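Internal ticket - ligand job 708, adenosine-5'-diphosphate:
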Amino acid sequence: MQRVGALSRRILAAAPGVLPSRRCDRLGLPVSTGSFRLACVSASITAPALSGLGLSVSPVSRSIHQYAAATPRPGRLSQGIQPLSAPVLASSMFQAQVGAFGPVQSLCGPSSVRFKKYVVPASKITQSELSRLMGLAKPEARTLAIAVGLLVVSSAVTMAVPFSMGRIIDIIFAETQGGSHQRLVEYTQLLIGVFLVGAAANYGRIVMIQNAGQSIVARLRQNLFSSIMRQDVAFFDRNQTGEVINRLAADTVVVGKAVTDNVSDGLRSVASAVVGIGMMAFMSPKLTLVVLGIVPPVCIVAVLYGRYVKRLTRQVQDSLANATQVAEERISNIRTVRAFAKEPEEVKRYDGHVQTVYSLGIQEGKARGIFHGATGLAGNLMMVSLLWYGGHMMVTNEITVGTLTSFLLYSAYVGVAVIGLSQFYSELMRGLGASERLWTILDSKPTIPLSEGHKIPHDRFFGKIDFQNVAFAYPTRPDAPVFKNLSLTVPDGKILAVVGTSGGGKSTVGALLLRLYDPDSGNILIDNYNVRELDASWMRQQIGLVSQEPVLFSGTVAENIAYGHPSATIEQIQDAAVQANAHRFITEFPEGFNTIVGERGQSLSGGQRQRIAIARALLKNPRILILDEATSALDAQSEHLVQEALERLMQGRSVITIAHRLSTIRNADTIAVLGNGEVVESGTYAELMALPDGQFRKLVERQTISAN
Ligand SMILES: Nc1ncnc2c1ncn2[C@@H]1O[C@H](COP(=O)(O)OP(=O)(O)O)[C@@H](O)[C@H]1O
Ligand SMILES: [Mg+2]
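stdout (structure tokens):
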């Protein structure tokens, strides 16, 4: 970090997601900005991730189900469906179609915004990337096939419009020369019938496409969330919450749209282009050549634009993720923000990220402006040449006025279709850009599988714990080993107190025992089984954790107590609450056990949360218990209540207690003092106090360990 100059730091602050890799190299930063950011991952993300997952992992699968249930199911029709335009009168249709050539869309905003040039790394489109994206639509093949069938019908109707209009104009023309009026009436009636069929087909097509799209998005979200839930804890150290949430919320929609709406629109464009050119060739091959002259340049512009959009999309999604990250963290910790009066700064920080998205949007707007301007101009020039050349042909009686009208309309249709195709291409590229990140998550296989391996039979499971020569550094900080050679033993049913300075690795002992991480070397054994051989979910179910900052989930008190044992009866829940000294305060709430605890239990006091966590652990009834400074954040009154509850909880279990209270430590069977990545002293209280120059004695004397 030292080598990063002030300017580069400004760039980083302004656009953390878009630092070009070349610059990273020059600054000696890791190439991926993701891993750069990881150096700044704050403890507030990792700590809840640890303790939140720490209780047991079987709730992981439950969370997946909950999430799946909350994901909107397919079949709901949402807004924003564009009707296929089918103008009725030749003149207004003509205008509408010609007008469609010129929608120069651009984003406008305050001129004070600085334009930044982002270095966009070149990207290649590989075959597999594309087929994988399209593969998402496979389960919807039937729905999509029906939609395509309906598309053929509605497109056929649409494509019949110009031809019919030409005929009608010729009929009207004939009538002015003394023809029969009856033909006009019949022809119009027939057309109305055909249009009604077209409308019905259009309705069906849009409903089908929407259904397929929603199913794909829902499935993608479910798979993604399921994959996220299974990731190693280290994954959550590396990836920020808001980023991951953005993948779930935004990227899935972009991808879902790319393979449904977009494909449908693309097919419609193909159909319009093919039929349109076919009809034109049928009516006048000569005039058709005039139209075709315009197609290749438009295609070239479209491909260039599409590539650009793909790269841009990846950046926009990244910047959006950054913005979501900031918002998510600040909103969920609004109390801290308020206490520090940091609202304006946080708003500014968020603005900074939004500004990046905004600037990228402006860039896209410029590109889109050029694209639409150029294609619109090309289309209009084509119209003019058609009128000029077609007019000439009409004068020489080569074609009728009706044919010229039909021809003009077809060429407008073809023009719109070509633009539609190029939009299809750019939307596809957008989908590819967004899907890359999804594949990264879906493909990353956790190194610690949730459930594979041995389960110790209940009657042979005692809960003896051994750490043998464990060396460990957190994956995100490989150069800062927490343990170099840690060995400790907890005989079954005994209590081990782990003491040491803050940051000495006490909580890490718990994390390793729960197998949130695997040691770099050495072994951790439970009942002489290496934890690597044991089924991790099963093993975690046998371990209870009460941490300093217990995490509750939004829901009722009863739900939170039953988190580790979902099938518990209300009597069991109440019994656990009584033992945890939590019954009294719970029943004093007007809603009792049905009281909502608020997000992360924030509407409860620290001591109340703590006792609910103890009740949760009691109900889970684990063989092994980890108490991580479970009383350190409490006042004397609740500490007494919690302490009493903890003593009940500890009975008959193997316990690792990380404590700062002398009374707890004194009651332990063994005390292990951590220092320098290993156990520097261990023994009973009396033994350690007897060491004249002992570390433990120093801790007690310096009152690092509190006396009461
Ligand atoms: N998720 C994490 N990623 C990287 N480093 C961590 C993580 N959690 C803890 N650490 C670091 O590991 C060391 C030991 O932490 P910990 O076990 O929490 O200490 P304590 O003894 O205070 O409980 C500390 O230096 C801490 O900064
Ligand atoms: Mg700790």
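Auto-summary: The beta strands are 465-472, 483-490, 495-499, 521-526, 529-530, 543-547, 624-628, 654-658, 670-675, 678-683. The first helix runs from residue 6 to 14.
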